[in-house]
Amino acid sequence: MGTFVSMIKNLLVACILIMLATNAIAQNTFSISGVVRDKKDGLPGASIYLSGYKIATVADNDGKFKLSNLKPGSYDLLVQLVGYLPYSKSVIISDKSVQVELVLKENVAQLDEVVIRADPNRQKYINQFKEFFIGKTPNAAQCKILNPQVLNVDFDITKSTLIVSTKEFLIVENKALGYRLKYMLDHFEYNSRTHIIFYSGHPFFEELKASAAKKKKYIAAREVAYYGSSQHFFRSLYANKTKEEGFIINKMIKIPNPNRYPQYVINANLEKIKAVPEKTGIRQTKGKVDTALLAFWTKQQEMPKTIDKFSRAEVLTDTLVHYFNQNLKYLSYTDALLIQYTKEKESLAYSKTGFWIFRPLDVPENEISVANLTGEGVRFYENGGIYDSRSLLYEGYWAYEKVADMVPMDYIPLPKKE
Fold it and tell me: Where is the secretion signal located (predicted)?
């Protein structure tokens, strides 16, 4: 009898512990709920996605929905319903669940907006967009945009800038990683003078149907895509485990270009040449043509004032990273961060591109990326997400890898073998 009572007590204790653990987990996760409607009523059947994740739901007959088990952080809701324009809304979860109202607008596109205008350069611009948005990695070769007809392309000749936009979800099939992406493209531009690419948007990931053997290949490819990525780096930086995860942080310092004359010398010589009278369209001094001198100083003017120098001093993360609030960390620095990922070597395909970063001969052929700040600092989340995508400008490997090498923000790598 005593043994039986003891068993009952132990069972009750175990149940209480399970309930407490479940309650603790519930207290650390929250939900986003609300209603999707137009100007009048709720909209049943609307699809609600969580940008960057594989989490989604469908609105009920009253247009109501709920997304549960969400950690504190910043989220972007994406809404899609036939006959209405795609819609996105940013939501921040701090310490409680959030309710929202999502109001959709009817898609009353004009005829000239749905018919592709005849443009002899359209296909060329679409191909450029694919290269700069999807990428040129081996994974990119297995990606396909399924609805390119929804893209509006424009090339601004005065600014040498390609601008691409759309009012629909862009559908990208990635047969390398096994994802089907619905991408709400907010903005894309490529400047052919500066070679700077900027795009922002909201991707939603769906699993492609596949056999067990194919899924195994997808999992292996996703592991390669994740490790060494900017997402992996910022996750490990948040957890203060960059070294354990294989990252070395140095700096790329800008120093005066030793091959360029000081600006005042260049200006003085160009002014001197311009002061010489012109004869028959060619500047002459004492009967001798000085076009070679003009070309020399013009070339000096065009040379960069600074060059990049690899600093071997390792940057310590405890002086680099600070808490911004309970959900965000923050880093600010001078010059640029040079990040080496030591557990993967640069691929042959990458070394043949213009993204390659110069390094001293004695530095191993690790994957190297450079992170330039565009403002005062960058805020980032525990899952590796960046609060403001415009706060960083990448060079090297992270610039080389684009949408074709993305995994969801809630991606969990396989357990490491001991």
Answer: 1-26
